Amino acid sequence: MAAPAGNKFWLLRSSHGRNPIFPSPDALEKACQEYFDFCVENPLEEEKLFCNKDGIHRATIYKMRIFTKIGLCNFLCIGTSTWEDYKNREDFSAICARVELIIRQQGIEGSAAGQLDPGITARVLGLAEKRELTGKEGGPIEQKTTMEAGPGLRGVLSALAAASTSGPDGSGTGGDPS
Questions:
Q1: Segment holding 166, helix H or strand E
Q2: Which domain holds residue 74?
Q3: Count of domains for the chain
Q4: Which of 41, 54, 77, 99 has its CA 20 to 30 A from that of 87?
């Protein structure tokens, strides 16, 4: 049986929608700091094999774990759209902007120090080097291809040219039957 038209049952509920995951900017900031701490305390591990006179040795190489917005959202158990919602809220916008700056800074500094792959970092952070190439006075680029023949090839080309200008009978018609 459907509720009667014009009812006000909705006024009886205790809350309107679910409670936010982070009730305050301080709670979000604390959770973001936990993500950063997790990344620092749990670097990526790579197993390498080394060979020397004593034989083959195994070693674990620890690599910096890059901070990413996707990694942060996974750690916080929220979607990227939820992060954008928090970012658009006036009370959360400052902490979200600061967190995104920290993520960018760590990626750039890690790449500059050689601890992160610069190409991957640039793609993750949306950095790009763009070059606009134009020709004279902003016009299209003109491409000219020239080839120079070496001395040996010049002799062959000269002989071919001479043979084509003089016919088989020496008439100079190039062998044209007409």
A1: none
A2: 21-125
A3: 1
A4: 41
